[in-house]
Design a protein that fits this description.
Length: 338
């Protein structure tokens, strides 16, 4: 009886794998991959940027506001001409102007403690936002901005969550260090995604996982760094930042179109996209190659801004503070920038 079942199983398997049952289907092609770069070499490549203390560039800035959209549609701000200035560890200035007419769209600055954002566009929604630059700053979720009794929050939407450090951490990447509280692991990933001609392809990545110990001495995922093995030199293509404690994806940053900068031995991406879906916005920076300046000379007045045009002020700390603090004024400072 056992021999009968064995022979029957063989006949079934033969029938399944017979030429009459096989059909060929199309699958996304696997792109050729470079040889694997050692983990230490990838770490050293990221840490080489620690020597860059300041950064300057100009180009195009685009902003998507997820929270002010309706159903599956979102709001895209018109692209503007952007000027970016950054100084380690946390100072930044971003000035955005409308193309052609060269009028102000937005001006954002931070000294690492306080941030200020002057919104010049749209003209009927001019606002001067300011608040603290703390890591534990309470985020405004979509349901809070869309259904809040505060009309200002409804109009501003995801922009209320925009913080200067979101840009500084994308452009001046934090070094990779291993110690008693941090460890780095590696994984090789093959991922299906759109190719240059929008056809689906399979790409190979070397991914570094950075895990850190929290206050309870538990390991939590902090960062993932993706290196594209299908492109020359295996460049950094993506960095994912996670909130310690909740494990939620905080920032999904993509890099592309890397170029060698004559004034530096380092390569720089000319396109950087900072997608913070949970915060309600996405920021895309397209830099002009000739404008990229590592270690550009800056002054302290580069990173100060005041409400000289007397826009209506919104204290972003106010929703979680007493009403007595909602009318406080931002620190006064100069307005010039380099």
């Amino acid at each position: 009886m056992r021999r009968y079942y064995f022979l029957a199983s063989c006949l079934i398997i033969s029938a399944l794998f017979g030429s009459a049952c096989i059909r060929r289907v199309s699958v996304p092609p696997l792109l050729p991959a470079n040889e694997e770069v050692p983990t230490n070499a990838l770490i050293n490549r990221i840490n080489a940027y620690e020597s860059v203390k300041t950064f300057g560039a100009q180009g195009t800035v685009s902003l998507r506001n997820y929270f002010t959209g309706v159903n599956s549609k979102v709001d895209d701000f018109p692209p503007g001409n952007g000027l970016v200035r950054i100084k380690r560890p946390s100072s930044i200035r971003i000035v955005v102007k409308a193309p052609v007419i060269n009028s102000q769209v937005a001006d954002m600055v931070s000294d690492g403690q306080q941030f200020r954002l002057a919104m010049h566009y749209p003209s009927d929604h001019k606002r001067f936002l300011f608040g603290s630059n703390l890591k534990d700053y309470e985020r405004m979720a979509a349901d809070r901005t869309q259904h809040s009794n505060n009309a200002d929050l409804n109009r501003v939407g995801g922009v209320v969550n925009m913080r200067p450090q979101h840009v500084t951490e994308a452009l001046l990447i934090k070094p990779l260090e291993t110690d008693d509280r941090t460890a780095i692991f590696r994984e090789e990933i093959k991922q299906e995604e759109p190719g240059k001609d929008k056809r689906r392809v399979v790409k190979s990545y070397s991914v570094l996982y950075v895990v850190e110990r929290n206050d309870q001495n538990q390991l939590e995922l902090s960062r993932k760094l993706w290196f594209d093995r299908t492109l020359p030199d295996t460049p950094l293509a993506r960095v994912q930042l996670f909130d310690i404690g909740s494990g939620k994806l905080a920032s999904d940053i993509t890099y592309s179109d890397w170029v060698k900068v004559p004034a530096s031995n380092l390569s720089w991406p000319t396109k950087v996209t900072i997608d913070r879906l949970n915060d309600g916005y996405k920021l895309t920076l397209l830099f002009e190659k000739e404008s990229i300046q590592p270690d550009v000379e800056l002054t302290n007045r580069t990173f100060v801004l005041e409400n000289t045009e007397k826009f209506e002020e919104i204290d972003l700390d106010a929703p979680r503070k007493s009403s007595a603090s909602q009318n406080r004024k931002p620190p006064q400072s100069g307005q010039r920038y380099r």
